[in-house]
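Sanity check

After download, print the first record. It should look like this:
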Amino acid sequence: MMPDNGRILDLAIEAGFGMIMIALVLAFIRLARGPSLPDRVVALDLITILAVAFCALFAVASDQPAFLDVAIALALVAFLATVALARFAERRKARSEGRPDDMDAGP
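Expected structure tokens:
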């Protein structure tokens, strides 16, 4: 006897939500305890990726495609934030080493 396809999808959605929640807890621990700024930036990026995954999974679970638009918008904002944080970390490292920033150098 074959299992019902709807039940398999429900189990997969529940398992997906569980794994996302576990990953969020672990990412928050890394964000709080991360020994360096790059560790914290990666943890924050992982949290935003997991939020995008949560929105996409919720869109499938609730049959509301509008949440996919939210996921796309969140992914774009998360990308820009990650680029900005990486640039900040690089400039901070350059200043601590005594190197001039690329923005400080004239033409």
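If your output differs, re-run the checksum step. Summary of this record's structure: The CA atoms of residues 2 and 8 lie 11 Å apart.
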